[in-house]
Design a protein that fits this description.
With 255 residues, this protein is mainly α. It has helices at residues 2-24, 33-54, 61-80, 86-111, 118-141, 159-182, 197-220, 227-254; strands spanning 186-188, 192-196.
Length: 255
């Protein structure tokens, strides 16, 4: 199992790096990564619908898809045609979330027949809009973030995205490794029976250390291993690993 986790993790990061390389050298930023994010969001929206229906709920399918994909589509357009600072584009993401929720409300209004079920269907559609569309839209927005001053050229705009995904996958692999080797105490026995405190702490520590050193080295080479920069990259890696664990538990809860 560990071998396959390592292989799949490397393939995922390598595949994303390939798309990033194409995107970094494209005439329009986001022209390769945008469609990839759109397809991923569509598949995630379909999975949300499947989970809702498995629990006996039936939100309006088209509102889930349209409402979820709107924030992603608007974020992609903002990246492809960006000419403003990232904060401006995040404003467009906020407007797209409002539009996505409006689509869900209108869809349920059209479907309304009697009181009792509309609020549940609307709540589930809104969950997909925010959880899938909003978070994927924020992930797309990372394409606009550039570590200015490090002279990385086009790759500078891709480093936040690549480092985020690589750190999460590294943390996941190291948690599994430490958990299988030393794990005894469960973090959430009912929610995620396989997750242990030993694996979680070991994964956080090792992923934070490896990622922070690796990112600092990419930014400034061997001269980048300076306390100030290492503190910044360590804070980033630590935050990403903790949020990744919360996201993993949230996914288990939804399933």
């Amino acid at each position: 199992m560990l071998r396959w986790r390592l292989i799949l993790g490397v393939l995922l990061v390598a595949g994303l790096a390939g798309f990033c390389w194409l995107d970094a050298h494209a005439s329009l930023p986001g022209v390769y990564l945008g469609p990839l994010a759109f397809v991923a969001a569509a598949l995630a929206a379909g999975e949300m619908l499947r989970m809702f229906r498995a629990q006996g709920h039936d939100p309006t399918a088209w509102t889930v898809y349209v409402g979820t994909l709107l924030p992603v589509a608007v974020s992609c357009v903002a990246v492809i045609g960006y000419a403003q600072p990232p904060v401006f584009s995040i404003g467009w993401l906020a407007l797209a979330l409002v539009a996505g929720l409006s689509v869900a409300i209108i869809g349920e209004m059209r479907r309304y027949e009697s009181p009792g079920r509309s609020i549940v269907r609307l709540a589930l559609a809104a969950l997909s809009v925010l959880y899938v569309g909003g978070l994927m839209g924020m992930l797309v927005q990372l394409r606009l973030v550039e570590p200015y001053g490090y002279g990385l050229g086009p790759w500078g705009q891709l480093l936040p995205l690549l480092s985020l995904i690589a750190t999460v996958k590294l943390s996941d692999t190291m948690q599994y490794t430490f958990g299988r080797t030393f794990g005894k105490h469960k973090v959430a026995p009912t929610l995620s029976p396989g997750k242990t405190w030993e694996g979680t702490i070991g994964g956080i520590g090792s992923a934070t250390l490896i990622s922070s050193v690796g990112i600092a080295y990419i930014l400034q080479g061997s001269a980048g291993l300076q306390p100030a920069l290492l503190a910044k990259t360590a804070a980033f890696a630590l935050a990403v690993t903790i949020v990744g664990i919360i996201g993993d538990l949230a996914e288990s809860m939804l399933k």
